[in-house]
Amino acid sequence: MKKNVLIIGAGGVAQVVAHKCAQNNDVLGDIHIASRTLAKCEAILESVREKNAMKVPGVLRAHAVDAMDSAAVAALIRTTGAQIVINVGSAFVNMTVLQACIDTGVAYMDTAIHEDPTKICETPPWYGNYEWKRREACEKAGVTAILGVGFDPGVVNAYARLAIDGWMDEVTSIDIVDINAGSHGRWFATNFDPEINFREFTGTVYSWQNGAWQSNSMFEVGRVWDLPVVGEQKAYMTGHDEVHSLSANYPQADVRFWMGFGDHYINVFTVLKNLGLLSEKPVTTAEGQEVIPLKVVKAVLPDPASLAPDYTGKTCIGDLVKGVKDGQPVEVFVYNVADHKQAYEEVGSQGISYTAGVPPVAAAMLIASGEWDVGRMANVEELDPKPFLTILDRIGLPTRVKDAAGDRPWNA
Amino acid sequence: MKKNVLIIGAGGVAQVVAHKCAQNNDVLGDIHIASRTLAKCEAILESVREKNAMKVPGVLRAHAVDAMDSAAVAALIRTTGAQIVINVGSAFVNMTVLQACIDTGVAYMDTAIHEDPTKICETPPWYGNYEWKRREACEKAGVTAILGVGFDPGVVNAYARLAIDGWMDEVTSIDIVDINAGSHGRWFATNFDPEINFREFTGTVYSWQNGAWQSNSMFEVGRVWDLPVVGEQKAYMTGHDEVHSLSANYPQADVRFWMGFGDHYINVFTVLKNLGLLSEKPVTTAEGQEVIPLKVVKAVLPDPASLAPDYTGKTCIGDLVKGVKDGQPVEVFVYNVADHKQAYEEVGSQGISYTAGVPPVAAAMLIASGEWDVGRMANVEELDPKPFLTILDRIGLPTRVKDAAGDRPWNA
């Protein structure tokens, strides 16, 4: 039984995490939030207070911390008494925050794979470059570290496990499809940090097919998917975190990730990429100033958090899992549909942040109850999906299943 | 009779000017070139020597000068003994260089209108904001200052005057059409300084129609032109320098400028503009660095000078002038066709630089001979076009005319 949460980060996802922790503070205890900029943390707490989100009276406090400084994070863990750290800061801080958790013996979770700011798209499996190197250290310290427990990666890993365990004897393929059919009304914007968003798509597209890593380039492989609620949508094979753990756990299956992109997004991305404006390497202006082009692109684009008030429409994210049951081919689509406007009304964030921010809170509740407090490092598909999906049903992200037998709640 | 030339600037156009001055140094005398970066001037002189361009033995010298410092330019004029200054530096230095010429009593010319780095697209007529305010000062000092004597503005102003004087009793419209049907083989590049190139197209499109200034936005008005050699080409109404003097000299005529753009250029431009990446106003990155987006775009794009070796194809720039002759409507198209590869072979620059750099040398030769040494400020259409076009025929930019009587050399 662990309690008291420390949230690292103060972006759109952190805001959702803070609201959801507050709504469940009877289980989670004290809530602390820390980032480099104290004012951003305080703004989030202010929005929690405005919505009256705290279920029971309790501690709700903001802190300034440099999450790249492992010792500073460890000190904050000690002074706050937090036993559960939810890291939703930039993808560059995973390893320092994880180390702080190992050093202090508290539970760790994040929602995206660690990245080195100077490297784009490393050798697969990506988790092998950073996080998995700390497996033994976690085991030795008895530290629960749940990697990638947002929606994708995260919930979609649980969906894969649910489908395989529940409806098949063996799995042959896992296709994760992420469609945002919402509209923010701007000429162009990314739904989360432009720097992280574009970095996802500038490298090699790795997929796991026929028992080996396959390489493609971005927007090379696309297909139209016909999905519940959002209908027909074009999605492209994309490199993504969960492919790198699911392929290790289910090496016999093809594992692919598909993300929906409109022609407009692809055009803007292509122009920026081909001009060199998405580069993380510095260029020198005629005036002699050293500048990283991607940082300038980020600076001119809308702040993703600013999109929330006007965002309408829905997201559909799910897993099409194919396999064999009793010698017959079988397939099942496990999915969630989320609504941008509902998310904004509840927690002041748009749907993309909502789907990423609710799952780590469900995971924190399972660590608090002990069900997921496994005392080792784990990717989500290595944990029992049922208590996770049960909590998600209750706290805002219900799971449905569509197969030959119809379209229904997963546990119907 | 004036002699000895000082070239200000060391870009692609300056290279053409240096070569052409060298080829005509029997008339022009000493040749000096000066810019902020001495090495760039020396590289140009090196290329002049490589091509053995000097017609007769003579002075050919490089200097460093900050052209924003009027006193420094004046001092350089005095020490070099130059009597003719060809300013092909950035559009931001016109007024300081012009002042240096007024202070020293030497002839001045440039190829583009003065710009303030912090202002995009000022009130028409553009010349009224800066250059024309020094008319009296030139008159008083007896200084010849020829404004905008590149190709467009410049040669096209002479084309308008030629057509009006030669083939009509009154003029009703002047449409200047600039088509580059060449190919540089890069994914995207601008043909001259990206900063100046994009600034041309981010402001209001001013045209002079029905006796008044009309406003449009960029790419709002387009039409297909069927031109000699380059064939059918789409061009868009664009703001441009020569509209601002021709409309003052021929207020009874509609004056429009049309520039050819491919769909690819328009798409890249539209993405960059809509994202805010063409802004000359600084933005602040997440890391706190102040950056002007347009400077970063310039830094990632190919250096226009680097396009020259691989540039193929032709340009066609001309004036469609309509009017009335003996009570009947009449129209004539006066034009030049230039070849990128020929330009490179002759002077090491591509065709766009060539068409801009040859005309000021023809003008310098007319100042040297006295024919255009008028002792006052003038736009090109205010000077006799015939000696100018005669020299251009000889030094690389022949003029042709197409009308009801056929397609022929202008003086056939």
Automatic annotation (TrEMBL), chains A, B:
Residues 5-146 form the Saccharopine dehydrogenase NADP binding domain. SUPFAM superfamilies: NAD(P)-binding Rossmann-fold domains. Pfam families: Sacchrp_dh_C, Sacchrp_dh_NADP. Residues 150-396 form the Saccharopine dehydrogenase-like C-terminal domain. InterPro entries: NAD(P)-bd_dom_sf, Sacchrp_dh-like_C, Sacchrp_dh_NADP-bd. This is Saccharopine dehydrogenase family protein.
